[in-house]
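Q: Hi! Curious about what SatD family (SatD) looks like structurally. Here's the sequence.
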Amino acid sequence: MPRRIAVLTGDVIESRKVADRPRLYRRLEDTLATLAARHGGHGERFRGDGFQLALPRAATAMEAAVTLRAALIEHSEPHQRWDARIAVAVGPAEPGMNEADGETFIASGRALDALSSTPGHLALTLLDEAEDEGLGLLLRFIDDLLDGWSPYAAEVVGLSLGHDTPQPVSQQALAERLGISQPSVHKRLRAARWALLSDSLAYLRRRLDDREPSTSGPTP
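A: Let's find out. The predicted structure is below.
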């Protein structure tokens, strides 16, 4: 069964307006390092506000993209929101997964270029499948959810996505971690529309999981 990898290519939105760019870059690098370690991948920042994350399993791609954006939004400056455009490409694994001239890497970069000319901040390209209108609508929905987050909502979602246990983290555990009440955690999760986001990411994880490429996709 062919294994599929994912490549996330992105850039920080309006980074030149950020007053404390060194703090922004540290946060970006720390998040990339955390995600690379968590998923067994490789991440790096380049050209100032640009970045790339290669993951050996495609199933984790959208969760990683949301986690990365959540980290930036959470640490936004008081008068300027931090966020990023992220283009995800999924394709068959190639020898030397971290080779930047691989097909999946190139597709991710091209998707980011295309994303830059649209109002969207999230894109997904599947190299081994035909374009799926329903998948595109789901990505727009998730993008819209994230656009409405406050730093508090992003923080609680980031913690929910980053826990290490197989079972969902409880609201009480989140409350203890954040030093706030359980009702406050509930309010933040509701504001982030966590239930819908969690179900959407679970669907995408199954959709992108390692399997034979779809027979509906393009043929060589």
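A: A fun detail: The domain at 4-208 is CATH 3.30.70.270 (Alpha-Beta Plaits).
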